[in-house]
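Workshop exercise sheet. Pairs work together: one partner reads the sequence aloud, the other fills in the structure field after running the prediction. Swap roles for the next sheet.
Pair: D.N. / O.F.
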Amino acid sequence: MRELKRILQEADRLHADGTEAVVATIVEIEGSSYRLEGARMLVRPDGQYVGTISGGCLEGEVAERAMQVLETGRPDLVTLEQQEGEDPFGFGSGCGGTIHVLLEPFRAEPDAPGVLTLIQHCVTQRTAGALATVYRTEGRLEGETGHHLLVTPETLSGRGDIEAEALRDAVAEDAAETLRESQALRTSYSVPQGRADVIIEHVVPPLRLLIFGEEHDVAPLVAQATLLGWEPVVVGASPVPELEEQFPDASGHVALPHPEEVAGALPHVGARDAAVAMSHNYIRDRAVLRFLLQSDVGYVGALGARSRLERLAEDFAGGDTPADRAAHQAMAEGQLHAPVGLDIGAETPEEIALSIAAEVQAMFAGADGGFLSEGSGRIHPSEVRTEVDESDAASANGEPTTA
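Structure field:
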């Protein structure tokens, strides 16, 4: 996410300067690849770029091809093939496999319906989206290459520049499913005008990390979250100006002098939020966790010894309010990660911050946090579902088809 933020920041700068550029996106992979579908880089007119689509071995070639797109103003689909231990471009990546990269012009106009403008909408509005990109076409759909459609919970019909009505309708329907399933899709469509290959990505806003505390171990966690491109928000008992002075790198600061008023201080929490209680004050953490464990927060963690966790469970079990009972039930169901963090032998504040961030990352990625050396198969399996259009019969009747 940090890389995406850097790309969007550079896009804003280019918009302000009226400078055109090229966006390169991995849209299809065959075999192994260092980066997965959806990896992007933004290439400036001077050949410099922000972001990566490989381990550093293919960016130069892509930047060179991008200069041609700048000249023509038309999208181009580039295929980069590599055999294991062999690189036809002389970069020596040794990854093997084939990647297909869509190069599309980045327009200087702020309102241009380009891919980065649509992604920026999801980031700014903190909403999930399904972003469809047409990357290969046949027939009269040739002009749709490099066109997009973004579907969000607020705009299920989509916004973007796919013009063919039959294609747009079919893509919008699958994008809505991608939004519901939170899983990307690569598929093909046959419509009266021709055929189109489309990738539909699941776009999410940056993860927001709510850190309840203001002791010495909070700053390293803020730094770690910032490094990952998350949005750390420090929630402490001190006034906001003091929190801002103590944690200048945090994305937000919330004063919470009375922990029982946490619901009013943070009325909008959701699935893309993670929260860690680490105030070193049992009464404060208990009040905060009572709220978090019955909220929609995607991850809840608490710093402290196992004995503290047992005491917390006993207090909630013995409570006489619905909130206590709900919190106790949530703990029984394993919704509280405590002691927080992965077991990496962490002792110092910096190591503990790494441990916490690693567990949060693993939870949101659906990973188990184990050793890669003990696994088998691809390190980064594609998360893109592939559907292949097996018949063009329906196109004769003027109906879009997907298999």
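Discussion prompt: Residues 1-110 form one domain. What would you look at next?
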